């Protein structure tokens, strides 16, 4: 089934940096936007974009299409937001992935949003779960998965997608940068909103 975006992403201010349309926003704008549109952005994804992902996008058209294909690519690093400010986007500020996650976790604990974490090592996921429950009492973790550090087989790919989809999570968070051929819309990319 093909995803059909319900919000007009043209209303999100952007600054094109090396071919990537980086959202010319700040954290307050982003959190307000997500809270206001949470039911309309189900199935979409947000890329957390820094210098590495921007340069990779410049060198790889397929990767650039992933960065630009989501709801937005947020300015994770200082350089993208600095470039944006120099180009006239005065409200553009660094909106890091970890800071956004903290904002989302705080809201989630209050509103009952559920999270699924994909990526990293099992020990890291276990520590993350412990810390999240400590810092955000009431947070609901729908699941966690540490994939093998190699490409998944087609069978593994289908199994994990099915497993994730069964969890009824509100957000999926991925700890690795996606590359062409990896599943993302309706499945994975850095920060995903209920698929």
Structural class: alpha/beta
Helix and strand pattern: EEHEHHEHHEHEHEE
- What is the number of helices? 7
Rg: 16 Å
* Biggest sheet descriptor: 6 strands, mixed
* Outline: globular
Helix fraction bin: 40-55%
What is the number of E strands? 8
Termini Cα gap: 11 Å
Overall pLDDT? 84
Low-confidence stretches: 178-195
Query: How is the largest sheet built, in terms of strand order?
Result: 4-3-8-7-5-6
Strand content: 15-25%
How would you portray this structure in words?
The protein starts with 13 loop residues before the first strand and ends with a strand. 32% of the residues are buried. Strand 5 (114-118), helix 6 and strand 6 (140-145) form a beta-alpha-beta unit. The protein has helices at residues 27-37, 51-59, 61-69, 78-86, 97-111, 122-135, 154-165, and strands at residues 14-17, 20-23, 45-49, 72-75, 114-118, 140-145, 171-174, 191-193. The strands form two sheets. Strands 4-3-8-7-5-6 form a six-stranded mixed β-sheet, with helices on both faces. It has a two-stranded antiparallel ribbon with strand order 1-2. Helix 2 crosses helix 3 (61-69). It contains seven helices and eight strands. By secondary structure, the chain is an alpha/beta fold.
Entry keywords:
single chain, 195 residues, alpha/beta, six-stranded mixed beta sheet, two-stranded antiparallel ribbon, globular, disordered C terminus
Record the SSE blueprint:
Layout: E1 14-17, E2 20-23, H1 27-37, E3 45-49, H2 51-59, H3 61-69, E4 72-75, H4 78-86, H5 97-111, E5 114-118, H6 122-135, E6 140-145, H7 154-165, E7 171-174, E8 191-193
Parallel strand pairs: 3-4, 5-6, 5-7
Antiparallel strand pairs: 1-2, 3-8, 7-8
Helix pairs in contact: 2-3
């Amino acid at each position: 089934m093909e995803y059909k975006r319900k919000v007009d992403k043209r209303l999100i201010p952007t600054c094109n940096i090396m071919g990537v349309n980086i959202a010319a926003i700040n954290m307050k704008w982003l959190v307000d936007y997500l809270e206001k549109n949470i039911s309309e952005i189900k199935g979409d994804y947000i890329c957390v974009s820094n210098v590495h992902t921007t340069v990779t996008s410049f060198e790889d058209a397929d990767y650039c299409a992933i960065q630009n294909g989501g709801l937005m690519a947020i300015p994770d690093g200082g350089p993208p937001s600095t470039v944006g400010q120099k180009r006239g986007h005065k409200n553009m500020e660094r909106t890091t992935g970890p800071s956004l996650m903290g904002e989302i976790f705080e809201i989630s604990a209050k509103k009952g949003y559920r999270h699924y974490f994909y990526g990293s090592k099992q020990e890291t996921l276990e520590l993350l779960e412990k810390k999240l429950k400590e810092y955000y009492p009431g947070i609901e973790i729908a699941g966690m998965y540490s994939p093998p550090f190699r490409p998944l087989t087609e069978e593994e790919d289908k199994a994990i997608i099915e497993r994730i989809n069964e969890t009824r999570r509100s957000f999926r968070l991925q700890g690795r940068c996606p590359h062409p051929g990896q599943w993302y819309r309706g499945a994975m990319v850095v920060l995903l909103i209920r698929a």
